C-alpha cells in the first residue's frame, strides 16, 4: 500500500514540468566514477566527494483539502534504512510537529490541517535520519520545501464598495468618467484564477466599461442634467478570464452629471405691474422680478438691466446675488401730480456663457414693467430750501423784512398757515403773518448784540394737518449808531521838565459799528478846553492822535494831574462823536525824560491798578512779612465770625416750644405717692372759664352749660371722668374726633376700658359747623367743606 501511494505521488509530480524527483539515489558517483573516488587537481591534491544516502528538493500540496483524513504529502527514505527498525526519521521547520507530522519509522509526511495558499504559499522544513538507539545521525540534515498548489477559491474584490464620480452633462460619447479596480487573491502565475474581466450589470445604455482596464465611459451623447442628474452603475469583476465557473464580485458607482450653462434665462411672464407711493424715498425698493434658469450655480447667475422705457432715468434695477432677483429701486423722487405711470423694458442675461451652446439662441430675455405712482398727502413745499433776509437795526417795530411761500403739492391745494417755531426764536423778536408768510419785527434790534438770527418757519395745511419747515437766516444790517471811544489808554504822565510841543501819548479809538468802508476816526481837542489849554491834540490821519504839550514846564506840587478832553468823531453818516477824557499826571523825570518820582496813584493808574487793588496788594505784603500780623488778622476774622446765639426760649411765659424733662419714670398705677390726685378728687377747684388754645374762643360761640357736680369729700374719680367725657362729646368747640384726649387717670384694673373720644357714640351729624362762616374769609374754605357736607346730607 505504501509503495502504491509513493507511485501516486510520483505520477502527480511528473505532471508538472518544473517538478523534480523527490527521492534520488546517490550511491553512484556524480562524475560517473566509483563511489568515493578522488579527483586529481592541477596541484596534485586529491579531493574526495562526500556520499549522501538520500536528497530531495520540494513537495507540492493542494490547498483547501476537504477530506476527513490527514492529507498525504510524501515519503522520506534513506539508503541506510534496511527495514530493521533501527532508523528514525525527524522533521523540523515551519509547522513541523503541528501542521506537518512524520512517521518516524516509515518517513511518511501528512498535513493535519486545511491549508490556504493565500495565507502562506510554501513551508520550509528540514529532515534527518538518525539511529533510533544511539540518536546519532545517519545522514546530514537536509532542507526541503512544501509548496501549496493554488486553486481558484477567491473571488475578485473591489477597492471600494461604492464609488462616486461626476461628469459634465452633454458630454461626448466615450468621455472617461472613472476607473474601478478589482484584485484577486489567487496565484496570478498559475492558470487564470487571478485573471479579472470587467462588465457592466446596471447603467446601460448610458455608460460602458472597458473589460480589461475597468474604465467607465459615457455611452450616450446629450445626457441632460436637467432631465436626470444621478445614475447608479453596477460593475462586475469576474476571474478565470470571465469564463463560466469563474468567481465574481460587484461594486456600485454613483455618477452625477454636473451642470454646464446650456440653458438661457427666461422671464415667466412678459408684463409685470407694481405701484409706489409718491413719497417713496430715493433708493427704496419698488418691486422684484425673477427670471428662471434651469442651470444651477454660477451657470444660473444673471444680470438685470433697464434698456428702455420712459422711466429709465427715474428707476434703477440691481441684481440680488443671493436670490438672483432683480430689485427695482427709485432713482429720482416721484411726483404723482407730474407723472402717474412709468413703463420700463427690463433685460436679463447670463453672466457666464459657454461658447459650445451659443447656438441654442441668445442667453438673454426681456420683459415689460409698469409702475403706477400713488398719490399721498404731502406736506407743503417751500419755494426755496432756505431764505436769507436783511433788516437794518434801526427798523421800527412791525417792519416787514421779507416773506416765505409754500404751497400744497397735492391736487386738493389745501390752504397753508405759517408760524414760527419758537424753539428757534425764543426772544420773540420776529413773527410771521399766518396767511401770506410775511416776516416782521416785534422788538427793536441791535446788531452789536446779535448780528444774525436763525429761525425756522413752519407751513401747515389746514386739513389734513401736514407741515414742513424751512430755515430763515436774518442778517441785521449795521447803522452808525455808536460813537467812537478810546481804545485802551485813559491815563498817562508828563514830566515836570517837559518842553512845549512834546508828544506825551498816542491814543487810538474803537467803534462797535462796522462800516462797509472801514473805520475812519477824527480827533480834536474839546472846544471848551481850547482856551488856555496846557495840551493839544494832533490828528495823525491814521485813526490815531498824538497828545502834545502846549507849554514848557509843569509843577506837580502846584497841580499833580490834568484832564484833557478829546473829541473823537467817525466818518459815517450820521456822524457820531464822543468826548473822552485823558488824565495826565505830572511826574519828576531826569534829563532823558525817564520818570523818577511820581505820586503813588499816578504810578498805579499808569500800571492799570485801582486804589482798591493797591490796598489788597499792601495787605498781602504785610501779612506775608509779619507773622504777628497774621495772628492778628486770623483773630480778627474769628471774632467777626463769632456771633452771639439767641436763647432757645426768650420768654418763660411762652412754653409752646418747650420740652420739659423730669427724668422721673413713675411707679405705675399702684404708686399713689408719686403724684397728688387731689385735684382730680376736687372737681370744683377746676376753672370753668379757662381758655383753651385748640378751640374757638367762647366769645364767638356761647359756652355749653354744664350740669353742676355734687361736691363730696370722696368723689369717685370715675364719675369725674365720665362727666368730662360727656362734656367733651357735647362741646362743639372740642378738638376733632381723630384727636387723642388724655384724662391722666385710667383707674385701678382699667375697668373703664378705652376712654378715647374716637369710640364715643356721637356722630358727625350731631355737630353744627355753620358758625365757621362767621369767622371771616380765612375760614371760608373750611366752612364750605363742612357746610357743604351738611347741605349734601340734608338734600
UniProtKB/TrEMBL annotation:
GO MF annotations in UniProt: beta-catenin binding; cadherin binding; calcium ion binding
Location of the protein in the cell: Cell membrane
GO cellular component: adherens junction; catenin complex
Alphabetical list of InterPro entries matching this protein: Cadherin, Cadherin-like_dom, Cadherin-like_sf, Cadherin_CS, Cadherin_Y-type_LIR, Catenin-bd_sf
Swiss-Prot/TrEMBL GO biological process terms: adherens junction organization; calcium-dependent cell-cell adhesion via plasma membrane cell adhesion molecules; cell migration; cell morphogenesis; cell-cell adhesion mediated by cadherin; cell-cell junction assembly; homophilic cell adhesion via plasma membrane adhesion molecules; morphogenesis of an epithelium
Gene3D superfamilies: Cadherins (2.60.40.60), TCF3-CBD (Catenin binding domain) (4.10.900.10)
Membrane topology of this protein: Single-pass type I membrane protein
Keyword line: Calcium, Cell adhesion, Cell membrane, Cleavage on pair of basic residues, Glycoprotein, Membrane, Metal-binding, Repeat, Signal, Transmembrane, Transmembrane helix
Signal peptide from the UniProt entry: 1-19
Domain Cadherin intervals: 78-158, 159-267, 268-382, 383-486, 486-603
SMART domains per the UniProt record, alphabetical: CA
Membrane-spanning ranges: 613-639
Biological role: Cadherins are calcium-dependent cell adhesion proteins. They preferentially interact with themselves in a homophilic manner in connecting cells; cadherins may thus contribute to the sorting of heterogeneous cell types.
PANTHER family membership: CADHERIN 6, CADHERIN-23
Protein name (record): Cadherin-10
Species name: Scleropages formosus (Asian bonytongue)
Gene name of the record: CDH6
Amino acid at each position: 500500500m505504501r509503495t502504491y501511494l509513493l507511485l501516486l505521488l510520483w505520477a502527480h509530480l511528473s505532471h508538472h514540468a518544473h517538478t523534480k524527483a523527490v527521492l534520488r539515489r546517490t550511491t553512484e558517483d556524480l562524475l560517473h566514477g566509483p563511489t568515493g573516488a578522488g579527483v586529481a587537481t592541477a596541484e596534485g591534491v586529491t579531493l574526495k566527494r562526500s556520499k549522501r544516502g538520500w536528497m530531495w528538493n520540494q513537495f507540492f500540496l493542494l490547498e483547501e483539502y476537504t477530506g476527513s483524513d490527514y492529507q498525504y504529502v510524501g515519503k522520506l527514505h534513506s539508503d541506510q534504512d534496511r527495514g530493521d527498525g533501527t532508523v528514525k526519521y525527524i522533521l523540523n521547520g515551519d509547522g513541523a510537529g503541528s501542521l506537518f507530522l512524520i512517521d518516524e519509522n516509515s518517513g511518511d509526511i501528512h498535513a493535519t490541517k486545511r491549508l490556504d495558499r493565500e495565507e502562506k504559499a510554501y513551508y520550509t522544513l528540514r529532515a534527518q535520519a538518525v539511529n533510533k538507539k544511539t540518536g546519532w545521525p545517519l545522514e546530514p540534515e537536509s532542507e526541503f520545501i512544501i509548496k501549496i498548489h493554488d486553486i481558484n477559491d477567491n473571488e475578485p474584490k473591489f477597492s471600494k464598495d461604492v464609488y462616486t464620480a461626476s461628469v459634465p452633462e452633454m458630454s461626448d460619447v466615450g468621455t472617461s468618467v472613472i476607473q474601478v479596480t478589482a484584485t484577486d487573491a489567487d496565484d496570478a502565475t498559475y492558470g487564470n484564477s487571478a485573471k479579472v474581466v470587467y462588465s457592466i450589470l446596471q447603467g446601460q445604455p448610458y455608460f460602458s466599461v472597458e473589460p480589461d482596464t475597468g474604465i467607465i465611459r459615457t455611452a450616450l451623447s446629450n445626457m441632460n442634467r436637467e432631465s436626470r442628474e444621478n445614475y447608479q452603475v453596477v460593475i462586475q469583476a469576474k476571474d478565470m478570464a470571465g469564463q463560466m465557473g469563474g468567481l465574481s464580485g460587484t461594486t456600485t458607482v454613483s455618477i452625477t452629471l454636473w451642470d454646464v450653462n446650456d440653458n438661457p434665462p427666461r422671464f415667466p411672464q412678459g408684463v409685470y405691474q407694481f405701484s409706489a407711493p409718491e413719497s417713496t424715498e430715493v433708493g427704496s425698493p419698488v418691486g422684484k422680478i425673477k427670471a428662471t434658469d434651469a442651470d444651477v450655480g454660477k451657470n444660473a447667475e444673471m444680470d438685470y438691466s433697464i434698456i428702455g422705457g420712459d422711466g429709465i432715468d427715474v428707476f434703477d434695477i440691481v441684481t440680488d446675488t443671493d436670490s438672483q432677483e432683480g430689485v427695482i429701486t427709485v432713482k429720482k423722487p416721484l411726483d404723482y401730480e407730474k407723472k402717474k405711470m412709468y413703463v420700463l423694458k427690463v433685460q436679463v442675461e447670463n453672466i457666464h456663457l459657454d461658447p459650445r451652446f451659443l447656438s441654442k439662441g441668445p442667453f438673454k430675455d426681456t420683459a415689460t414693467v409698469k409702475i403706477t405712482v400713488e398719490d399721498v398727502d404731502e406736506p407743503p413745499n417751500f419755494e426755496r430750501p432756505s431764505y436769507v433776509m436783511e433788516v437794518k437795526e434801526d427798523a421800527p417795530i412791525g417792519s416787514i423784512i421779507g416773506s416765505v411761500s409754500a404751497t400744497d403739492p397735492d391736487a386738493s391745494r389745501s390752504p397753508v398757515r405759517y408760524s414760527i417755531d419758537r424753539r428757534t426764536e425764543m426772544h420773540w423778536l420776529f413773527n410771521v403773518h399766518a396767511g401770506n408768510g410775511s416776516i416782521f419785527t416785534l422788538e427793536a434790534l441791535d446788531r452789536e448784540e446779535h448780528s444774525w438770527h436763525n429761525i425756522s418757519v413752519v407751513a401747515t395745511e389746514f386739513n389734513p394737518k401736514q407741515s414742513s419747515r424751512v430755515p430763515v437766516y436774518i442778517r441785521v444790517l449795521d447803522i452808525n449808531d455808536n460813537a467812537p471811544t478810546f481804545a485802551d489808554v485813559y491815563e498817562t504822565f508828563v514830566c515836570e521838565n517837559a518842553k512845549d510841543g512834546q508828544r506825551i501819548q498816542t491814543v487810538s479809538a474803537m467803534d462797535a459799528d462796522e462800516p462797509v468802508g472801514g473805520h475812519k476816526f477824527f480827533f480834536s481837542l474839546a472846544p471848551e478846553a481850547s482856551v488856555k489849554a496846557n495840551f493839544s491834540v494832533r490828528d495823525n490821519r491814521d485813526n490815531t492822535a498824538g497828545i502834545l504839550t502846549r507849554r514848557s514846564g509843569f509843577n506837580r506840587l502846584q497841580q499833580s494831574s490834568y484832564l484833557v478832553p478829546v473829541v473823537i468823531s467817525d466818518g459815517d453818516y450820521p456822524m457820531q462823536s464822543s468826548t473822552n477824557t485823558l488824565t495826565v499826571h505830572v511826574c519828576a523825570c531826569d534829563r532823558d525824560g525817564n520818570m523818577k518820582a511820581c505820586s503813588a496813584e499816578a504810578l498805579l493808574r499808569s500800571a492799570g491798578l485801582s486804589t482798591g487793588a493797591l490796598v489788597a496788594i499792601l495787605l498781602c505784603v504785610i501779612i506775608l512779612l509779619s507773622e504777628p500780623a497774621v495772628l492778628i488778622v486770623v483773630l480778627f476774622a474769628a471774632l467777626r465770625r463769632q456771633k452771639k446765639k439767641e436763647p432757645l426760649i426768650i420768654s418763660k411765659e411762652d412754653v409752646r416750644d418747650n420740652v420739659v424733662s423730669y427724668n422721673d419714670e413713675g411707679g405705675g398705677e399702684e404708686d399713689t405717692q408719686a403724684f397728688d390726685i387731689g385735684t382730680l378728687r376736687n372737681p370744683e377747684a377746676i376753672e370753668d372759664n379757662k381758655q383753651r388754645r385748640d378751640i374757638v374762643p367762647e366769645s364767638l360761640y356761647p359756652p355749653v352749660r354744664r350740669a353742676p357736680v355734687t361736691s363730696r369729700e370722696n368723689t369717685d374719680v370715675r364719675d369725674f371722668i365720665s362727666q368730662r367725657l360727656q362734656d367733651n362729646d357735647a362741646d362743639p368747640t372740642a378738638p376733632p374726633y381723630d384727636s387723642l384726649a388724655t384724662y391722666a387717670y385710667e383707674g385701678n384694673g382699667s375697668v373703664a376700658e378705652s376712654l378715647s373720644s374716637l369710640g364715643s357714640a356721637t356722630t358727625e351729624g350731631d355737630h353744627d359747623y355753620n358758625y365757621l362762616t362767621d369767622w371771616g374769609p380765612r375760614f371760608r374754605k373750611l366752612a364750605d367743606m363742612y357746610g357743604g357736607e351738611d347741605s349734601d346730607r340734608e338734600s
